[in-house]
Write a structure and sequence with these properties.
three-stranded antiparallel beta sheet; two-stranded antiparallel sheet
C-alpha cells in the first residue's frame, strides 16, 4: 500500500512539473512569435509596409492600434524634421526626390494630378510636386522632401523614417507592457534594436559606409546618439504612462546610456 501511495505521489508531482514546463514553453514560444512579428514588420517591402503596417491590434500601452499609428506618424515627422534642419543649415532650400507609388514612378502630369486628388495632402504642399528628369533620362514625378512633413511623402521617400519610428514605438510599447523600467538597460536594448533594424534595411550601404555597420556599442558617439535620440523621442509618446521621476530623467538627459557610442 505504501508503495502504491508513493507511486501516486510521484505521478502527481510529475504531472505538476510537466504542466509547469508546458506552460513555460508556451510562454517562450509566444514571446518568440511576438519578437518575430516585430522583426518581420520592420523588414517588409516598402510599399506593403506603408499600405498595411503591422501595428499592434487590441490592447497597447497607448490605448489602441489607431493611437500607435498616430504615434508612429508623429515620430516619423519628427525624425524627418531633424534632417530638414540639418539640410537647411548646410544651405539647401529644396530637395526634390523621385517618388514611387505602389513601387512605380509617376510619369505623366495627369497621373500626378490623380495621385494628388486621391491623397490627403494639404493644398499648401501640392506645389512641392513636379515632373523632372531623374538624372537617368527619365521624366518622372518628384517631391520636395525638404519642405514637406514625412507623413505626406510618397511611400518610398517616407519609408526609412516611418520604419525607424515604428521600431522605436513598438519596442517601447512591448517593454512597458511587460513591466520594464526606463533605465540604462532599456535604452541600450531599444537603441540596439533600432540600429540593428536599420542595418537590416540598408545592407546595400555597407560597402560605402562600413563604419555604420557595427554593433550599437561600437558606433561613434555621434552615430550612437542618432539611435538614442529616436528612442528618446519615442518615449515622449508615453509620458503619461511613466513615473514622474522617469519623465524628469528623460527631459533632462540627452541619453541615459553610459559608455555607449565609444567607438571601441
Amino acid at each position: 500500500m505504501k508503495k502504491i501511495l508513493m507511486l501516486i505521489s510521484f505521478l502527481l508531482i510529475s504531472n505538476h512539473v510537466l504542466a509547469f514546463q508546458t506552460e513555460l514553453l508556451a510562454k517562450v514560444v509566444e514571446a518568440v512569435k511576438q519578437a518575430r512579428k516585430i522583426k518581420t514588420a520592420a523588414n517588409v517591402e516598402h510599399a506593403s509596409f506603408l499600405k498595411a503596417p503591422k501595428y499592434a491590434s487590441g490592447v497597447t500601452q497607448l490605448g489602441d492600434a489607431a493611437k500607435v499609428e498616430s504615434a508612429v506618424s508623429s515620430l516619423g515627422d519628427r525624425l524627418h524634421a531633424t534632417w530638414q534642419v540639418e539640410a537647411r543649415a548646410s544651405g539647401k532650400t529644396e530637395r526634390f526626390k523621385p517618388m514611387k507609388v505602389d513601387g512605380k514612378p509617376i510619369t505623366t502630369e495627369a497621373d500626378l494630378q490623380k495621385y494628388l486628388n486621391n491623397s490627403n495632402i494639404p493644398a499648401e504642399y501640392r506645389k512641392r510636386f513636379k515632373l523632372m528628369d531623374d538624372g537617368k533620362g527619365n521624366v518622372v514625378a518628384h517631391e520636395d522632401i525638404l519642405n514637406m512633413p514625412n507623413r505626406y511623402l510618397a511611400p518610398n521617400n517616407q519609408f526609412e523614417n516611418t520604419a525607424s519610428a515604428y521600431n522605436a514605438v513598438m519596442f517601447t510599447d512591448k517593454w512597458l507592457a511587460a513591466g520594464g523600467k526606463i533605465d540604462d538597460t532599456f535604452m541600450r536594448a531599444a537603441s540596439s534594436f533600432v540600429h540593428d533594424q536599420w542595418m537590416a534595411r540598408n545592407g546595400w550601404a555597407k560597402d560605402q559606409s562600413p563604419e555604420l555597420f557595427k554593433p550599437f556599442d561600437q558606433l561613434s558617439a555621434k552615430e550612437a546618439k542618432k539611435d538614442t535620440d529616436i528612442v528618446n523621442d519615442a518615449l515622449k509618446m508615453y509620458y503619461d504612462k511613466l513615473s514622474v521621476s522617469d519623465v524628469n530623467k528623460l527631459k533632462h538627459a540627452g541619453s541615459v546610456l553610459k559608455g555607449a557610442g565609444s567607438g571601441k
